[in-house]
Amino acid sequence: LILQGKYVRGNKISENAESACYIGYDLKNDAKVHIREFFPRDICFRAKDGQTVSPKESCEDKFEHLKSDFLSYFRRLAKVRDVEAIASVYDIFHDYGTVYVVSELVEGLSLYDLVERNQKPLDWEAAKILFMPVVSAFGRLEQAGVLHLGVTPKSLIVGKNGKIYISDFSTHNL
Asked: In whole angstroms, what is the distance from residue 117 CA to residue 108 CA?
């Protein structure tokens, strides 16, 4: 599926109550990206074309309200661009009856998987180096009106570059 004539939506990599996330490809910049699709599965479905997202009967108002919240939330997140521990949001747009958010793809392991793989907790010095940018990022996010509300070891990604990133942002409505 080509979105906006410039992004290829690939395989689904995760989902939650409000969205589905895909690996994507930016055709114009020749780069892998992360694509989040607003898809609150309890109140919507895919049309017969397999792409268009439509609200279920009697859920139209709720779908539009939540879509508006999703759009506002990710627009606020997009303004927080210069923070080391947050993947940059590149684009936000409407297509196929829903909203898409295209952001930097952070490849790596979740903090949970990293600790499991090492079979021991992080020592203080390593943790301090990893987490100081995260602590700073949460301060900046709060100033921008963006609350995460779901931070877990699985939502913190240690990138291949050794830096930690906050992932799995979603609105608080679902």
From this structure: 13
